[in-house]
Amino acid sequence: MSTASTKFRLNTGADIPAIGFGTWQDKDAQESAVLEALKAGYRHIDTARIYGTERAVGAAIKKSGIPRDQVFITTKLWNNSHHPDDVEAAIDASLKDLGTDYLDLYLMHWPSPFARGTSMFLRGDDGKLKKGDTDYVETYKAMEKAFKSGKARAIGISNFSHSELERLLRETSVVPAAHQIELHPYLQQKDFVQFHKSKGIHVTQYSPFGNQNEIYDSGKNMGKLIDDPALAKIGKKYGKSAAQTALAWGVTQGHSVIPKSKTPARIKANLEGDFKLDSADMQQLGILDKKLRFNDPSTSWGLWDFYADLEGKK
After folding, report:
1. Among all residues, which ones are annotated catalytic?
2. CA-to-CA separations, 208 to 30, 115, 146, 218, 280, in angstroms, rounded
3. pTM for the structure as a whole
């Protein structure tokens, strides 16, 4: 077993492992996949309430025998629990399913509130999603209470635009420890990344393989990022695959990355993306930036115009 070694310091003083294990999709396969990942050496597991995988993650950590304080756990608040009165109950439900009394990082999954209730996607008689009326600033202030109580040792956000993040910084008291965003060599968002660095906000890259995920319709009629010859060529220099090189592109910038897989060989291989590229190679990969965003539910949800001021917005 070769435990991933690179860690990055959050603004709380805690360290987050550079290579995390994502648990989105394949809900029924996650307990065995997370257990496999922990055995391989992962010490950073990323889940979310909406994934339905928190219980599987908790069970896998328990089965692994690895002490709780050696595993960095991230989960996320879902959109139906944005009302300030619902946030504590939501984090408590996540803690219960994960089998722990604290989270290493708790993120607001989206800045967009859905209607309150037990339904994750409450729809009206017209079949359309029902929008909530809670301001994300008020949601975040409720998350700050969880941070201060110790239930969440760090709090942060996901899928915010530049202006939404700027407003959050102006109107709240705890600077987000992390922002989880879509980021890969085809969507590099250099200015936005630099803004995070200037504010001391760690960046976690989701979908680090870009359009590898079949769920992204917009990425189907083009070559896969991890088949890009430029990544393969640079990877060869380090004895690494194109996929591992895509992960290293993030790690080299000081970002954590959360690849996902349920295949043991691929789970192990992704851990080997924990290495640094030299500046010349990073410059070469900079040319790959197509400003292509694959995850944007603005149309499918019909409630919110996400990423309005960011690259990759169509």
Report:
1. 51
2. 19, 31, 29, 16, 21
3. 0.96
